[in-house]
Every structure is written in C-alpha cells, then in structure tokens.
Amino acid sequence: SDHFPEHRSTCVNSWKLIKDFVRELNTDIRFFLGAECTIKSGGHIEINDEERAELDYVLGAPFHWHIDFMEEKFGSDSGSAAAYAKEEILAALENPNIDGLVHCYPIYGSPVFAVIDKEFIDKSFAYDIGKKAKQMNKAIEISSRFDFSEAITD
After folding, report:
1. 3-class secondary structure, 18
2. Distance between CA atoms of 118 and 111, rounded to whole angstroms?
3. Strand partners, 36
4. In this predicted model, what pLDDT tens digit does every residue of 129-150 receive, in sequence order?
5. Nearest to residue 120, comparing CAs of 94, 74, 151, 145?
6. Peptide bond connecting 111 to the previous residue in cis, omega within 30 degrees of 0
7. For 4, which of 35, 78, 101, 152 could close a Cys bridge (C-beta 3.0–4.6 Å)?
8. pLDDT in tens, 86-120
C-alpha cells in the first residue's frame, strides 16, 4: 500500500502493473493491493468507488493531518484537539470503505504533538477506539512508537 490520494496518479497506474505482474508470476503466493488514505472531516476518505474496487483493502490514516491544519483549528487547545482526533477516528471506523486504521494514536514526536499534549491521550482514547474497531470488525495498527504503558495501566 502507499499513501493515497497524495500519490493518486502513481498509485492508479501502478495498480494495473502490479496486478499484471502478479498474474504473470503464476504462483500460490497471495498478494494484496491496498492504499493508505488520509481521513478527512467526518471520517471520509478521498477515494472513489472505481478506485476502491481495484483494491483488496483501504487503511484510514488520521494522523496524516498537517500541523498547520491542527494549529489553525485549535491553537494551543490540546483538549479540543484530542477530542477532535478521537471523534474523527471513531467516525472513520463507521466508513464502509475503510478496512482498518493506521497511526490511530498520536505518536510522540510527531507534528501533531505540537498541538495535542500527552496528558490528553489517556486510557479512554485507546479503549474507545479499540472497542469501536472490534464492533465494526476493523483492523488497527498498533505503533511500537506509542508508549502504551500509561494508556493501558492504572
């Protein structure tokens, strides 16, 4: 998978080449073709039905949001920024075109943390997202760069 739609023309052209290549391999190895899409407002992603039909899976990526967007929207209001992030992630899990989430926890050191302070990403942030993902039968990437020790222990 690759970032989509940021690299739309490259991805769409590559999908056909990849499918042709895999077909020519004539192997029992199973290949999956996917895209990683930035989650937009309301849990929407920028992929049309025709593009989606070409893929085996689509991953929603909430923390591809740019720092200027977060700063413009929230300034230094970490609580509101964290609430917004959680709301958008939960909405994305309702999107039938999304099979799973990547980067669904703010990563310390990422630009988003210039806006969302660590104290606002608590146990309920991870729990509520995990519970919703299970309910909607969606996959979640758990990043090794996130310190879960504080999020999962009392």
Report:
1. helix
2. 13
3. 3, 59
4. 889 999 999 998 876 655 555 4
5. 151
6. no
7. 35
8. 888 899 999 999 999 887 665 444 444 444 556 66
